[in-house]
Amino acid sequence: MAVPGKAEGEAAACRTPLIFPGSSMSSRRLFLLLSLACLAGQVTALIEGLYCGQDVCYDVLGVNREATKAEIARAYRQLAKKYHPDRYRTNEERETAHNKFLLVATAYETLKDEETRRDYDYMLDHPEEYYRHYYHYYSRRLAPKVDVRIVILVTVCVISIFQFYSWRSSYNEAIKYLSTVPKYRIQATEIAKQQGLLNRGKEKGKNRKSKEEMREEDEEIIRDIIKNKIDIKGGYQKPQIYDILLFQIVLFPYYLFNYITWYVHWVYRFNIKGEEYGEEEKLFLIRRNMKMSQSQFDSLEEEKKKLFLEEELWKREAYEVYKKEQEEEMKKKMASDPRWKRYRRWMKNEGPGRLTFVDD
């Protein structure tokens, strides 16, 4: 079967007899070799296992290489109706029709897509590039059907939703715990009484509520007051929509620009101009020396931050001295603590790594 395009031209050239006046035996041999080369080009233009195999997809559908999408679709519908296996009764005819139907479907799938059709036409015109044809064919077949960008977006959204609800659950657990702490519960109860939220009269008739329902309402009022009045920082702070992964990725260029601006401003003020640090800058340096995150540092008490400022811990030398003092104090505390003494005694006598035989 002739191959359209370049292969078809080569085949036509091979079928054209060359007559040279007084041609010698060597010229005839050369003509024979050229003919065999043309035939080899015809065969290699169609690779078994790629597209329509040894058949030309255009010939399978009965169209030429200039056919439009509409013409290809029309030819496919006619042939699919003609070779549909349900139209045949005997098993042999049905099997033959089934194979023909699959070939027609393969030809249509190859030619209906612009990129696949372009690769197929290139294979017909350049039959010698075997590896390129195999690569394009199987890379297209094995490529994921769903856009990778959509998969990444959906994954980020799922992680962000899980992150937000997990964060909100931790926040609600913290509020629930604080409502059981006497110090916060008493203050919240006093505020609720002042606002008249707990001084309710007894309802009668259908609107009358049970003691359990009234107790649950009171608990909800106290929790709401704690939510509004207390400022929880750190890992249990109130969840903010802008802190989830999705918004962090979207706002990353903005954060990066702010950081570069802040860093340049810092270098200009304190390294070039030699200005003295303010309280905010001192606290930043203290947090960096302690290697604490912003949420961890914010969760510290204000008295402790003032102590850090008095100790001048923004200076690296002062912080190293403070760190050694804290380590020594912790060692003394552990040495005098009865619980640590018992633990060390247990590790020495009966801790892991010691083999003993205990009588029953």
Automatic annotation (TrEMBL):
Annotated coiled-coil segments of the chain: 290-317
One Gene Ontology cellular component: endoplasmic reticulum membrane
Intracellular or extracellular location(s): Membrane
Keyword annotations from UniProtKB, A to Z: Chaperone, Coiled coil, Membrane, Transmembrane, Transmembrane helix
Predominant location: membrane
J domain span: 56-124
A single BP term in Gene Ontology: protein folding
Domain of life assignment: Eukaryota
Protein name per its UniProtKB record: DnaJ homolog subfamily C member 25
Protein's organism: Pyxicephalus adspersus
